[in-house]
Input
Amino acid sequence: MALLLFVMGLRWLGIGLFLATAGLEMALGATAVFRLIDIGQVLDIAEYLFEARVSYLMMLVLLLVFAATSFWIAASRLKGARWVWLPLIASVLMLVQWQLSFAKATFFSPPFAERNELLFGSSALFVHRTLEENRRRHVHIGADAESAEYLPIAHPSASSLTLGERPTSRRILFVVVESWGLPKDSASIEQQIHALRTSDRVRNFKLLDIDAVGTTAAGELRELCGRMPTRLNFRQMTRETVGLCLPARLAEQGYKTVSLHAAFGAMYRRLLWYPVLGFGESLFRETLPFKGTQCHSFPGYCDRDLFGVVQEKMQKDKVFLYWLTLNSHVPYDRRDIAKYRGDLCDSAFGVNYSEQLCNYQNLHVQFFEQLTKLIESDSMRGVEVVVVGDHAPLFNGADSLKQFFADKVPALHFSVL
Output
Protein backbone atom coordinates (compact mmCIF):
# COMPACT_ATOMS: atom_id res chain seq x y z
CA MET A 1 0.00 0.00 0.00
CA ALA A 2 2.83 2.41 0.84
CA LEU A 3 4.53 1.63 -2.46
CA LEU A 4 1.26 2.11 -4.34
CA LEU A 5 0.65 5.53 -2.79
CA PHE A 6 4.23 6.57 -3.49
CA VAL A 7 4.04 5.57 -7.18
CA MET A 8 0.71 7.37 -7.56
CA GLY A 9 2.42 10.60 -6.56
CA LEU A 10 1.24 10.75 -2.93
CA ARG A 11 4.84 10.54 -1.76
CA TRP A 12 4.58 11.93 1.76
CA LEU A 13 1.56 9.76 2.48
CA GLY A 14 3.41 6.76 1.09
CA ILE A 15 6.50 7.49 3.19
CA GLY A 16 4.35 7.94 6.31
CA LEU A 17 2.63 4.61 5.74
CA PHE A 18 5.99 2.95 5.08
CA LEU A 19 7.35 4.21 8.42
CA ALA A 20 4.16 3.10 10.20
CA THR A 21 4.37 -0.42 8.75
CA ALA A 22 8.08 -0.64 9.62
CA GLY A 23 7.16 0.30 13.20
CA LEU A 24 4.47 -2.39 13.24
CA GLU A 25 7.01 -4.97 12.09
CA MET A 26 9.29 -4.02 15.01
CA ALA A 27 6.33 -4.17 17.40
CA LEU A 28 5.44 -7.61 16.05
CA GLY A 29 8.97 -8.80 16.68
CA ALA A 30 8.92 -7.45 20.23
CA THR A 31 5.55 -9.03 21.10
CA ALA A 32 6.63 -12.38 19.69
CA VAL A 33 9.94 -12.43 21.56
CA PHE A 34 8.98 -10.87 24.90
CA ARG A 35 5.40 -12.19 25.18
CA LEU A 36 4.09 -8.69 25.92
CA ILE A 37 0.40 -8.11 26.59
CA ASP A 38 0.05 -4.40 25.79
CA ILE A 39 1.31 -2.39 22.82
CA GLY A 40 2.39 0.36 25.22
CA GLN A 41 5.09 -1.97 26.51
CA VAL A 42 6.80 -1.83 23.11
CA LEU A 43 7.03 1.96 23.37
CA ASP A 44 8.43 1.78 26.89
CA ILE A 45 11.07 -0.74 25.84
CA ALA A 46 12.03 1.57 22.95
CA GLU A 47 13.06 4.19 25.52
CA TYR A 48 16.02 1.99 26.45
CA LEU A 49 17.22 1.57 22.88
CA PHE A 50 20.43 3.47 23.52
CA GLU A 51 21.39 1.14 26.37
CA ALA A 52 22.00 -1.50 23.69
CA ARG A 53 25.44 -2.45 22.39
CA VAL A 54 26.92 -0.07 19.83
CA SER A 55 27.16 -2.88 17.26
CA TYR A 56 23.42 -3.53 17.59
CA LEU A 57 22.61 0.14 17.10
CA MET A 58 24.80 0.28 14.00
CA MET A 59 23.05 -2.77 12.57
CA LEU A 60 19.65 -1.16 13.24
CA VAL A 61 20.69 2.03 11.42
CA LEU A 62 22.04 0.02 8.46
CA LEU A 63 18.82 -1.99 8.31
CA LEU A 64 16.68 1.16 8.22
CA VAL A 65 18.90 2.72 5.53
CA PHE A 66 18.72 -0.47 3.46
CA ALA A 67 14.93 -0.67 3.78
CA ALA A 68 14.43 2.98 2.85
CA THR A 69 16.82 2.73 -0.11
CA SER A 70 15.12 -0.41 -1.40
CA PHE A 71 11.73 1.29 -1.11
CA TRP A 72 12.96 4.34 -3.04
CA ILE A 73 14.57 2.27 -5.82
CA ALA A 74 11.48 0.08 -6.24
CA ALA A 75 9.21 3.13 -6.42
CA SER A 76 11.47 4.83 -8.94
CA ARG A 77 11.55 1.77 -11.19
CA LEU A 78 7.75 1.57 -11.12
CA LYS A 79 7.28 5.27 -11.73
CA GLY A 80 6.64 4.80 -15.43
CA ALA A 81 4.31 1.83 -14.98
CA ARG A 82 0.58 2.14 -14.76
CA TRP A 83 -0.32 1.99 -11.06
CA VAL A 84 -3.46 -0.03 -11.82
CA TRP A 85 -1.29 -3.12 -12.21
CA LEU A 86 -0.26 -3.11 -8.55
CA PRO A 87 -3.69 -3.89 -7.02
CA LEU A 88 -4.17 -6.49 -9.74
CA ILE A 89 -0.94 -8.22 -8.72
CA ALA A 90 -1.99 -8.00 -5.05
CA SER A 91 -5.30 -9.69 -5.91
CA VAL A 92 -3.46 -12.54 -7.63
CA LEU A 93 -1.19 -13.01 -4.62
CA MET A 94 -4.24 -13.06 -2.35
CA LEU A 95 -5.80 -15.84 -4.41
CA VAL A 96 -2.58 -17.84 -4.24
CA GLN A 97 -2.45 -17.37 -0.46
CA TRP A 98 -6.05 -18.55 -0.21
CA GLN A 99 -5.10 -21.78 -1.96
CA LEU A 100 -2.02 -22.25 0.25
CA SER A 101 -3.94 -21.81 3.48
CA PHE A 102 -7.33 -23.24 2.55
CA ALA A 103 -6.54 -26.80 3.62
CA LYS A 104 -5.65 -25.77 7.17
CA ALA A 105 -8.23 -22.98 7.43
CA THR A 106 -5.65 -20.41 8.51
CA PHE A 107 -6.43 -17.66 6.00
CA PHE A 108 -8.53 -15.68 8.48
CA SER A 109 -6.26 -16.41 11.45
CA PRO A 110 -2.76 -15.71 10.11
CA PRO A 111 -1.04 -15.29 13.50
CA PHE A 112 -1.51 -19.00 14.15
CA ALA A 113 -0.53 -20.16 10.65
CA GLU A 114 2.83 -21.49 9.64
CA ARG A 115 4.76 -18.76 7.88
CA ASN A 116 5.28 -20.97 4.80
CA GLU A 117 1.49 -20.95 4.37
CA LEU A 118 1.42 -17.16 4.02
CA LEU A 119 2.69 -14.90 1.25
CA PHE A 120 1.71 -11.72 3.10
CA GLY A 121 -0.30 -10.62 6.12
CA SER A 122 -1.22 -7.71 8.35
CA SER A 123 1.32 -6.87 11.04
CA ALA A 124 -1.38 -4.91 12.87
CA LEU A 125 -3.57 -8.01 12.97
CA PHE A 126 -0.63 -10.18 14.01
CA VAL A 127 0.26 -7.84 16.87
CA HIS A 128 -3.35 -7.60 18.08
CA ARG A 129 -3.88 -11.36 18.05
CA THR A 130 -0.54 -12.07 19.73
CA LEU A 131 -1.24 -9.59 22.52
CA GLU A 132 -4.70 -11.05 23.07
CA GLU A 133 -3.37 -14.60 23.14
CA ASN A 134 -0.63 -13.73 25.64
CA ARG A 135 -3.13 -11.84 27.79
CA ARG A 136 -5.63 -14.71 27.78
CA ARG A 137 -3.07 -17.37 28.64
CA HIS A 138 -0.98 -15.68 31.26
CA VAL A 139 -3.10 -13.31 33.35
CA HIS A 140 -6.44 -13.53 35.08
CA ILE A 141 -8.97 -11.59 33.04
CA GLY A 142 -11.43 -9.86 35.35
CA ALA A 143 -14.11 -7.22 34.96
CA ASP A 144 -11.53 -4.44 35.22
CA ALA A 145 -8.92 -6.14 33.03
CA GLU A 146 -8.97 -3.43 30.38
CA SER A 147 -8.20 -0.65 32.84
CA ALA A 148 -6.03 -2.48 35.37
CA GLU A 149 -2.26 -2.03 35.00
CA TYR A 150 -1.25 -4.95 37.23
CA LEU A 151 -3.29 -8.15 37.27
CA PRO A 152 -2.93 -11.23 39.51
CA ILE A 153 -0.76 -13.92 37.95
CA ALA A 154 -2.54 -16.99 36.61
CA HIS A 155 -0.04 -19.51 38.05
CA PRO A 156 1.89 -19.76 41.34
CA SER A 157 5.23 -17.98 41.56
CA ALA A 158 8.39 -19.45 43.05
CA SER A 159 8.08 -17.14 46.07
CA SER A 160 4.54 -18.27 46.85
CA LEU A 161 5.48 -21.95 46.51
CA THR A 162 8.60 -21.70 48.68
CA LEU A 163 8.22 -18.83 51.15
CA GLY A 164 4.46 -18.54 51.43
CA GLU A 165 2.72 -15.56 52.96
CA ARG A 166 4.76 -15.43 56.17
CA PRO A 167 8.35 -16.77 55.91
CA THR A 168 9.94 -18.13 59.07
CA SER A 169 13.67 -17.93 58.24
CA ARG A 170 15.40 -14.90 59.68
CA ARG A 171 17.76 -14.53 56.71
CA ILE A 172 16.50 -14.99 53.15
CA LEU A 173 18.45 -14.72 49.90
CA PHE A 174 16.12 -14.46 46.90
CA VAL A 175 17.78 -14.46 43.47
CA VAL A 176 16.13 -13.84 40.11
CA VAL A 177 18.59 -15.06 37.48
CA GLU A 178 18.58 -13.28 34.14
CA SER A 179 17.47 -15.54 31.24
CA TRP A 180 17.63 -18.75 33.28
CA GLY A 181 15.23 -20.96 31.34
CA LEU A 182 13.93 -24.49 31.72
CA PRO A 183 15.63 -26.84 29.21
CA LYS A 184 13.67 -29.71 27.74
CA ASP A 185 16.61 -32.02 28.42
CA SER A 186 17.14 -32.26 32.18
CA ALA A 187 20.84 -33.09 31.67
CA SER A 188 21.49 -29.44 30.80
CA ILE A 189 20.06 -28.00 34.01
CA GLU A 190 21.55 -30.75 36.15
CA GLN A 191 24.95 -29.75 34.80
CA GLN A 192 24.28 -26.12 35.74
CA ILE A 193 23.26 -26.87 39.33
CA HIS A 194 25.58 -29.83 39.94
CA ALA A 195 27.81 -27.97 42.39
CA LEU A 196 24.82 -26.94 44.51
CA ARG A 197 23.08 -30.30 44.43
CA THR A 198 26.23 -32.13 45.61
CA SER A 199 27.27 -29.59 48.26
CA ASP A 200 27.21 -30.92 51.84
CA ARG A 201 26.08 -27.46 53.00
CA VAL A 202 22.73 -27.73 51.22
CA ARG A 203 19.65 -29.05 53.02
CA ASN A 204 16.15 -29.79 51.68
CA PHE A 205 17.10 -29.11 48.07
CA LYS A 206 14.10 -28.77 45.72
CA LEU A 207 13.99 -28.13 41.97
CA LEU A 208 10.71 -26.68 40.65
CA ASP A 209 9.37 -25.30 37.40
CA ILE A 210 7.39 -22.04 37.22
CA ASP A 211 5.11 -20.60 34.54
CA ALA A 212 6.75 -17.41 33.31
CA VAL A 213 6.32 -14.97 30.43
CA GLY A 214 7.25 -11.38 29.65
CA THR A 215 10.29 -9.23 30.21
CA THR A 216 12.66 -9.24 33.18
CA ALA A 217 10.55 -6.62 34.97
CA ALA A 218 7.48 -8.84 34.54
CA GLY A 219 9.41 -11.71 36.15
CA GLU A 220 10.31 -9.47 39.07
CA LEU A 221 6.71 -8.43 39.67
CA ARG A 222 5.59 -12.04 39.34
CA GLU A 223 7.88 -13.09 42.18
CA LEU A 224 7.75 -10.05 44.44
CA CYS A 225 4.10 -9.06 44.07
CA GLY A 226 2.28 -11.94 42.36
CA ARG A 227 1.28 -9.53 39.60
CA MET A 228 1.58 -9.29 35.83
CA PRO A 229 1.96 -5.82 34.28
CA THR A 230 -0.40 -5.06 31.41
CA ARG A 231 1.85 -2.13 30.51
CA LEU A 232 5.21 -0.81 31.66
CA ASN A 233 3.93 2.34 33.31
CA PHE A 234 6.37 2.16 36.21
CA ARG A 235 6.42 5.90 36.79
CA GLN A 236 2.91 5.73 38.22
CA MET A 237 3.16 2.47 40.15
CA THR A 238 1.60 2.71 43.62
CA ARG A 239 1.03 0.39 46.57
CA GLU A 240 -2.67 0.35 45.62
CA THR A 241 -1.98 -0.94 42.08
CA VAL A 242 0.43 -3.75 43.02
CA GLY A 243 -0.81 -4.59 46.50
CA LEU A 244 1.32 -5.48 49.52
CA CYS A 245 4.38 -7.07 47.93
CA LEU A 246 6.72 -9.56 49.57
CA PRO A 247 9.41 -7.00 50.59
CA ALA A 248 6.76 -4.75 52.15
CA ARG A 249 5.23 -7.67 54.09
CA LEU A 250 8.66 -8.68 55.36
CA ALA A 251 9.50 -5.09 56.32
CA GLU A 252 6.36 -5.05 58.46
CA GLN A 253 7.70 -8.19 60.18
CA GLY A 254 10.95 -6.44 61.06
CA TYR A 255 13.17 -7.58 58.18
CA LYS A 256 15.76 -5.29 56.64
CA THR A 257 14.85 -5.41 52.94
CA VAL A 258 17.66 -4.89 50.44
CA SER A 259 17.71 -5.07 46.63
CA LEU A 260 20.83 -5.57 44.51
CA HIS A 261 21.21 -5.09 40.75
CA ALA A 262 24.43 -4.16 38.96
CA ALA A 263 22.79 -2.19 36.12
CA PHE A 264 21.80 1.47 36.35
CA GLY A 265 18.82 2.20 38.57
CA ALA A 266 17.13 4.16 35.77
CA MET A 267 16.72 0.97 33.73
CA TYR A 268 13.01 0.10 33.84
CA ARG A 269 12.85 2.98 36.37
CA ARG A 270 13.66 0.66 39.25
CA LEU A 271 14.80 3.63 41.31
CA LEU A 272 11.16 4.71 41.39
CA TRP A 273 9.28 1.49 42.01
CA TYR A 274 11.62 -0.61 44.17
CA PRO A 275 10.69 1.52 47.22
CA VAL A 276 6.99 1.01 46.34
CA LEU A 277 7.57 -2.76 46.58
CA GLY A 278 8.97 -2.31 50.08
CA PHE A 279 12.76 -2.18 49.69
CA GLY A 280 14.38 -0.02 52.33
CA GLU A 281 17.79 -0.09 50.61
CA SER A 282 18.57 -0.48 46.90
CA LEU A 283 22.03 -0.98 45.41
CA PHE A 284 22.56 -0.27 41.71
CA ARG A 285 25.64 0.23 39.59
CA GLU A 286 25.89 3.91 40.53
CA THR A 287 25.58 3.21 44.27
CA LEU A 288 27.63 0.02 44.66
CA PRO A 289 30.60 0.56 47.03
CA PHE A 290 33.23 -0.57 44.50
CA LYS A 291 34.25 -0.40 40.86
CA GLY A 292 33.52 -3.83 39.42
CA THR A 293 34.27 -5.42 36.07
CA GLN A 294 32.13 -3.98 33.28
CA CYS A 295 30.23 -6.88 31.74
CA HIS A 296 29.86 -7.05 27.97
CA SER A 297 26.37 -8.47 27.55
CA PHE A 298 24.61 -5.53 29.21
CA PRO A 299 25.75 -2.19 30.72
CA GLY A 300 26.64 -2.96 34.33
CA TYR A 301 29.00 -4.92 36.59
CA CYS A 302 29.60 -8.64 36.23
CA ASP A 303 27.73 -10.88 38.66
CA ARG A 304 30.94 -12.59 39.75
CA ASP A 305 31.98 -9.33 41.44
CA LEU A 306 28.82 -9.12 43.55
CA PHE A 307 29.10 -12.22 45.73
CA GLY A 308 31.13 -10.29 48.30
CA VAL A 309 28.40 -7.65 48.49
CA VAL A 310 25.77 -10.40 48.93
CA GLN A 311 27.74 -11.99 51.75
CA GLU A 312 28.20 -8.65 53.51
CA LYS A 313 24.50 -7.74 53.31
CA MET A 314 23.43 -11.17 54.58
CA GLN A 315 25.16 -10.60 57.93
CA LYS A 316 22.16 -8.75 59.37
CA ASP A 317 20.19 -10.58 62.07
CA LYS A 318 16.93 -10.40 60.08
CA VAL A 319 17.33 -9.63 56.40
CA PHE A 320 15.68 -10.24 53.03
CA LEU A 321 18.16 -9.72 50.19
CA TYR A 322 16.78 -9.67 46.67
CA TRP A 323 19.38 -10.01 43.90
CA LEU A 324 18.56 -9.56 40.22
CA THR A 325 21.54 -10.86 38.22
CA LEU A 326 22.74 -9.27 34.99
CA ASN A 327 25.44 -10.75 32.77
CA SER A 328 23.62 -13.90 31.65
CA HIS A 329 21.66 -11.52 29.41
CA VAL A 330 21.47 -12.11 25.65
CA PRO A 331 23.81 -12.17 23.65
CA TYR A 332 25.69 -14.21 26.32
CA ASP A 333 29.12 -12.71 25.73
CA ARG A 334 32.06 -15.09 26.10
CA ARG A 335 34.13 -12.31 27.65
CA ASP A 336 31.87 -12.49 30.73
CA ILE A 337 32.96 -16.08 31.32
CA ALA A 338 35.96 -16.27 33.64
CA LYS A 339 36.90 -19.80 32.54
CA TYR A 340 35.31 -21.02 29.30
CA ARG A 341 34.81 -24.80 29.08
CA GLY A 342 33.79 -26.31 25.77
CA ASP A 343 33.44 -29.79 27.29
CA LEU A 344 30.41 -28.58 29.25
CA CYS A 345 28.54 -28.07 26.01
CA ASP A 346 29.70 -31.33 24.45
CA SER A 347 28.22 -33.30 27.34
CA ALA A 348 25.04 -31.20 27.56
CA PHE A 349 24.17 -30.71 23.88
CA GLY A 350 26.14 -33.29 21.89
CA VAL A 351 28.12 -32.24 18.84
CA ASN A 352 25.72 -29.77 17.23
CA TYR A 353 25.20 -26.55 19.17
CA SER A 354 25.71 -22.85 18.59
CA GLU A 355 28.44 -20.79 20.22
CA GLN A 356 25.73 -18.62 21.78
CA LEU A 357 24.12 -21.65 23.46
CA CYS A 358 27.50 -22.80 24.75
CA ASN A 359 28.22 -19.35 26.20
CA TYR A 360 24.79 -19.42 27.86
CA GLN A 361 25.55 -22.78 29.48
CA ASN A 362 28.97 -21.65 30.70
CA LEU A 363 27.53 -18.49 32.24
CA HIS A 364 24.97 -20.40 34.30
CA VAL A 365 27.42 -23.11 35.38
CA GLN A 366 29.76 -20.30 36.46
CA PHE A 367 27.02 -18.58 38.46
CA PHE A 368 25.93 -21.68 40.36
CA GLU A 369 29.49 -22.73 41.11
CA GLN A 370 30.13 -19.29 42.61
CA LEU A 371 26.86 -19.45 44.54
CA THR A 372 28.01 -22.78 45.97
CA LYS A 373 31.27 -21.20 47.14
CA LEU A 374 29.29 -18.40 48.76
CA ILE A 375 27.08 -20.69 50.85
CA GLU A 376 30.09 -22.70 52.01
CA SER A 377 31.13 -19.72 54.09
CA ASP A 378 30.33 -20.15 57.79
CA SER A 379 28.69 -16.71 57.79
CA MET A 380 25.95 -18.07 55.49
CA ARG A 381 24.78 -20.82 57.87
CA GLY A 382 21.02 -20.82 58.36
CA VAL A 383 20.22 -18.75 55.26
CA GLU A 384 17.17 -19.79 53.23
CA VAL A 385 17.82 -19.50 49.48
CA VAL A 386 15.41 -19.24 46.54
CA VAL A 387 16.73 -19.00 42.97
CA VAL A 388 14.39 -18.57 39.99
CA GLY A 389 14.61 -17.52 36.34
CA ASP A 390 12.89 -14.40 35.06
CA HIS A 391 11.98 -15.65 31.57
CA ALA A 392 13.01 -18.17 28.92
CA PRO A 393 16.33 -17.39 27.20
CA LEU A 394 16.49 -15.69 23.80
CA PHE A 395 18.78 -16.89 21.01
CA ASN A 396 19.50 -15.83 17.47
CA GLY A 397 19.04 -19.39 16.20
CA ALA A 398 15.82 -21.42 16.16
CA ASP A 399 17.65 -24.65 17.09
CA SER A 400 18.85 -23.15 20.36
CA LEU A 401 15.40 -21.76 21.15
CA LYS A 402 13.87 -25.21 20.73
CA GLN A 403 16.04 -26.52 23.57
CA PHE A 404 13.91 -24.62 26.12
CA PHE A 405 10.28 -24.31 27.15
CA ALA A 406 8.97 -20.94 25.96
CA ASP A 407 6.78 -20.23 29.00
CA LYS A 408 8.50 -21.96 31.93
CA VAL A 409 11.55 -21.28 34.10
CA PRO A 410 13.29 -23.36 36.79
CA ALA A 411 13.42 -22.54 40.50
CA LEU A 412 15.55 -23.83 43.37
CA HIS A 413 14.80 -23.81 47.09
CA PHE A 414 17.13 -24.91 49.89
CA SER A 415 18.57 -24.00 53.26
CA VAL A 416 22.23 -23.65 54.18
CA LEU A 417 23.60 -25.93 56.88
